[in-house]
Design goal:
It is built from two helices and no strands. By secondary structure, the chain is an all-alpha fold. The protein has a domain of about 35 residues. The mean pLDDT is about 80.
Length: about 50
């Protein structure tokens, strides 16, 4: 998961903003599924944790 997306999700959880959490969750699954279906699953970006 990109760091910027992780930061936004954490901010939304801290604010208890359910609408933002759902939106970011949908964005993540869209991004993840798009990468997976393009055959680049081995090249998925990883967070630097």
């Amino acid at each position: 998961m990109p760091i910027w997306l992780s930061n936004q999700i954490m901010r939304a959880f801290n604010k208890r903003d359910r609408r933002q959490i759902r939106l970011l969750n949908d964005c993540w699954f869209f991004y993840y599924n798009r990468q997976w279906t393009n055959g680049t699953s081995s090249q998925l970006p990883r967070s630097k944790s």
